[in-house]
Amino acid sequence: MTECKSPTACSIVLRGASKDVLNEIERNLHDAMGVARNVMNNPKLVPGGGALEMQLACRLRELGDKVEGLHQWPYKALASAFEVIPRTLAANCGGDVVRMLTELRAKHAAKDPKDDAAMPGLMWGINGNTMKIEKMDEANIWDPCAVKI
């Protein structure tokens, strides 16, 4: 499939030990082809592991703190909604959800004292394989931008 000179069509034969296994393989293949399509249509990537969502949540909380009275609640509500993604990742990988979210929030809230516009925490996310907070660029964990849009 990757070395064909003029690809026009191909067939994929799936085999499995049982009907349930075969159905799971088919779902995984369908998901993988969807990811490939998304990356081909929009080849941009963003840090995975909930890094983008936590960055947005931290910045929205900062904006909410600058607003007076009841008008800050929409900012805080949206920030909480964005944190659902890293919270779910932490729970699904079996990590201590409260500890992981607190640590991740602290990494994203950190500011560069030299540059007020810098976002040093942007790359920090949850590596579901190691159950640790890691830099997503170093762990090579990315999400297609098309999915986030």
Key structural traits:
GROEL, domain 1, 4 strands, 149 residues, mainly alpha, two-stranded antiparallel ribbon, 9% strand
Strand content: 5-15%
Poorly predicted runs: none
Number of H/I helices = 7
Tell me the overall shape.
elongated
- The ordered string of helix (H) and strand (E) elements is HEHHHHEEHEH
Question: Quick check: average pLDDT?
Answer: 88
Q: Give the total of beta strands.
A: 4
Tell me the name of the CATH homologous superfamily of the domain at 46-148: GroEL-like equatorial domain
Describe this structure in words.
It is a single chain. This protein has 149 residues and is mainly alpha-helical. It has a domain at 46-148: Orthogonal Bundle (GROEL, domain 1), CATH 1.10.560. Helix content is 52%, strand content 9%. The protein contains 7 helices and 4 strands, in the order H-E-H-H-H-H-E-E-H-E-H. The protein has helices spanning 19-41, 51-65, 73-82, 84-92, 97-109, 136-139, 145-148; strands spanning 45-47, 124-127, 132-135, 142-144. The strands form 2 sheets. Strands 1-4 form a two-stranded antiparallel sheet. Strands 2-3 form a two-stranded antiparallel ribbon. Helix 2 runs antiparallel to helix 3. The radius of gyration is 20 Å and the shape is elongated. The two termini are 29 Å apart. The relative contact order is 0.16. The model has no long low-confidence stretch (mean pLDDT 88).
